[in-house]
Amino acid sequence: MAITSFLAGGALAASGLVLTPPRGSDALTLCYPLLRAVTRFDPSLADSVRRRVDAHEAVHRADCDRLGSIRHYLAIANRDGRLAVEARAGCAEARLQIGAGAHPYLEVERMVDELHYGYGWFRELDEGSIREALGRACPDLVALGRVPPWGRR
Fold this sequence. Notes:
Layout: H1 2-15, E1 27-32, E2 36-41, H2 47-67, H3 69-75, H4 79-99, H5 104-118, H6 127-137, H7 139-144
Helix pairs in contact: 2-3, 2-4, 4-5, 4-6, 5-6
């Protein structure tokens, strides 16, 4: 199996399927048959940003390992499936940031903005739909993030 994975990885790399992140992206995780997840990071990321981005990409790698490549791609093939996955990945980022001292309200608002404006798939969605997806993905964080740092809403 290891030799097959190595050979498949070499063939994929040689064919250009192992990509670097697109311009403007911090990282890219692809889920390949046999190889499983392959993550590529923007080499210019600062260490603190890379830790946050890696928390996000770790969710995608875990999904790939858990589902396998075909089921993983089917899970993200439509907008609702992609939103659920990206919301969970955003929650992983937020947990890391909150653990480092970030305010939960600001992290929830960052996730809403990132999902709404950072992904072409979700620009047409209303903010309420994105908040609902986050509420399903990490209800504990969304509950913590209801009160802004300056007091009651």
